[in-house]
Amino acid sequence: MSGPNSSYDPVQVTPLGEEQVFAMRDEALAAIEAAADLEALKQVRSDHAGDRSPLGLANREIGALPPQARKDVGMRVGQARGAVNQALAARQEVLEEAAEEQMLLTETVDVTLPWDRRSRGARHPITTMSERIADTFVAMGWEVAEGPLVEAEWLNFDALNLGADHPARTMQDTFWTEPAENHVVLRTHTSPVQARTMLTRTPPIYVVCPGRVFRTDEYDATHSPMFHQVEGLVIDEGITMAHLKGSLDHFAQATFGEGITTRFRPSYFPFTEPSAEVDLICFVCRGSGLNETGDATCRTCRGEGWIEWGGCGVVNPRVLVACGVDPERYTGFAFGMGIDRTLMFRHGVEDLRSFFEGDVRFSRAFGTEI
Ligand code: PHE
């Protein structure tokens, strides 16, 4: 590097003359203005304000100039660098602001947008209960049997010892389909599945059949023209009422908890002989008929200590004969319960219609048990 000169030779200073320095400055200012983002500005800073930029190099040259020139050029270059640095700082601020705005824009979460997560929904409590009941019997080796909802009159009534003029036909108010001469009904109970099963299988038979049934009942808090029953049928050698009682006690325990037993009251069904009504010992008061504090009646059984649950009996030999089963060799038992009714007292549901009106808040209360 050349040492400082004592005389001022304008020719020597030409490369750092006004024009050149202004050109460097203007080029830098233009580049700064053109920088579109912070990344570009960083590059502009190193190109136009760094040690190796034209102005940076010019700055280094100043020391080698004659003293007179040093002052002029120093001021000129200093001003140019000042202007460039100022422009850089200003541009930096503008671009930072823009970047932040962009970030806010792209990362915005609009919490008012519609929610697109679908609720999982719940299975219908009657479906859950039906399957639960079926599971109890399947666990004992029984099978699940099914039959059609629209049924032949013969299977719904005649095969079950309910002939055309049998007074008990009026016990079940029937929906008949047209034309009447087809003798087709909406099944009034699940018992035709008994007949269908015996007609298509050979004993031993152990089946359970949950399903819909129809009666011309008013639609009110305790009746519905469509409701659900579960039928059980066993046909085997040496089957007695004791097997029936044992099976129902097991069913009661599986559904209502340990220690819950059943009692039989004599009754009449054309398809069973003898027949009985099945009562369940109240699973809340356990037969006492009193509430927890003992000063009022139990709300679940209304003070009875027992709850009516369904019908049952030993299969009438006439039904066995009608369905092609040898009554000398086989005996059997059958039972039928209302599923909706079972759920009502099991969960304290006051109005049967709650099951059928489709309000998810009701179904949800039973959980999403699968
Ligand atoms: N099917 C009868 C009813 O609906 C119930 C029942 C079934 C009774 C099986 C005895 C045996 O009332």
From TrEMBL:
Which Gene Ontology terms cover its molecular function? ATP binding; magnesium ion binding; phenylalanine-tRNA ligase activity; tRNA binding
Enzyme group, top EC level? ligase
What's a Pfam family in this record? tRNA-synt_2d
Write out the coiled-coil annotation as residue ranges: none
Q: Which domain of life is it from?
A: Bacteria
InterPro entries this protein is in?
aa-tRNA-synth_II (IPR006195), aa-tRNA-synth_II/BPL/LPL (IPR045864), Phe-tRNA-synth_IIc_asu (IPR004529), Phe-tRNA_ligase_II_N (IPR004188), Phe_tRNA_ligase_alpha1_bac (IPR022911), Phenylalanyl-tRNA_Synthase (IPR002319), tRNA-bd_arm (IPR010978)
Q: Output the PROSITE patterns linked to this UniProt entry.
A: AA_TRNA_LIGASE_II
> Which cellular component appears as one GO term in the record?
cytoplasm
Could you give the cofactor binding note from the entry? Binds 2 magnesium ions per tetramer.
What catalytic activity does the UniProt entry give for this protein? tRNA(Phe) + L-phenylalanine + ATP = L-phenylalanyl-tRNA(Phe) + AMP + diphosphate + H(+)
Q: Where does Mg(2+) bind?
A: E273
Q: Among the record's GO biological process terms, what is one?
A: phenylalanyl-tRNA aminoacylation
Signal peptide range: none
Nucleotide-binding keyword on record: yes
Question: Chief localization class?
Answer: cytoplasm
The Aminoacyl-transfer RNA synthetases class-II family profile domain sits at 135-344
SUPFAM superfamilies reported for this sequence: Class II aaRS and biotin synthetases, tRNA-binding arm
EC number(s) stated in the UniProt entry for this protein: 6.1.1.20
**Cofactor or coenzyme needed:** Mg(2+)
Q: Where's it found, cell-wise?
A: Cytoplasm
Q: Which UniProt keywords apply?
A: Aminoacyl-tRNA synthetase, ATP-binding, Cytoplasm, Ligase, Magnesium, Metal-binding, Nucleotide-binding, Protein biosynthesis
PANTHER family given in the database record: PHENYLALANINE--TRNA LIGASE, MITOCHONDRIAL, PHENYLALANYL-TRNA SYNTHETASE
Give the record's subunit note. Tetramer of two alpha and two beta subunits.
Family, as annotated: Belongs to the class-II aminoacyl-tRNA synthetase family. Phe-tRNA synthetase alpha subunit type 1 subfamily.
This protein's name: Phenylalanine--tRNA ligase alpha subunit
Q: What is the organism of origin for this protein?
A: Nocardioides marmorisolisilvae
